[in-house]
Amino acid sequence: MKIRAVIVEDSRLARNELKELITEYQEIELVGEAENVDMGYDLIQKEAPDLLFLDINMPEKDGFALLEMLDDVPITIFTTAFDEYAIKSFEYNALDYLLKPINKKRFSQAIEKAKAKLEGRLESEKGQPKLNEGSQIFIKEGDQCWLVKIGDISHFEIVGNYTRVYFGNEKPLLYKSLNQIEEKLPEPSFFRANRQQIVNINFIQEVVPWFNGKLKLMMKNGEEIEVSRRQSYEFKDRMSI
């Protein structure tokens, strides 16, 4: 398996250190490097890498800002001078991190973790659109950050100019419109219940007949979502009810 990687890091010394470490892994192909967030964004849009080595603390915009700009986030390994306890607050599921100066053994562990995750992602993406249940989105709210699999999200909901994202016990806000999100979602799994909400049909526990031909969806997380009359007809047709 060939892994296409990019480095986004403002320090030339740190970039060279990473490149030297990468040369020991024949399966990793370095397809580009960038010294700031905007250059990194353009590089990622052009190359669509599998793996991203990303510095957190950079001038003007930090590494988290770059992840927020991306619709589909590559497997990400942070490179940082922050101490282990500070970076712990940013970890969620797929995120890994390397403390500078980078230890060879720790680098190897991060690469193995990335390889395993990529193999799982490739398996889930077979025959699927660009964004699928295995794809990830990055969400930052205050000091908390999450890298969330699309398939783990139960539903999305409009809150003013933001969209609230429900997964597990979390419900942070994402600064994107519901229409922007809907365009990227895999159609087999997600359904527009009404003007305010999109649901993951895999999280529906019960479908209840409601007033005036409408439906109410009882979600596995306890949420209740009312389907508009027009969308109720579409839902019945789609689910063969």
- Mean pLDDT, all residues: 87
Which CATH C-level class of the largest domain is it?
Alpha Beta
Helix content: 25-40%
What percentage of amino acids are in beta strands?
25-35%
- What name does CATH use for the topology of the largest domain? Rossmann fold
Summed up, the domain count is 2
Series of secondary-structure elements, N-terminal to C-terminal: EHEHEHEHEHEEEEEHEEEEEH
CATH level-4 homologous superfamily of the largest domain: Response regulator
Question: Can you characterise this structure?
Answer:
By secondary structure, the protein is an alpha/beta fold. The protein has two domains: 123 residues, Response regulator (Rossmann fold); 104 residues, LytTr DNA-binding domain (OB fold (Dihydrolipoamide Acetyltransferase, E2P)), CATH 2.40.50. It is 31% helix and 32% strand. It has seven helices and 15 strands. The protein has a five-stranded parallel β-sheet, with helices on both faces. Helix 2 runs parallel beside helix 3. The radius of gyration is 20 Å and the shape is elongated. The N and C termini lie far apart (43 Å). The model has no long low-confidence stretch (mean pLDDT 87). This is LytTR family two component transcriptional regulator. Keywords: Phosphoprotein. It comes from Flagellimonas lutaonensis.
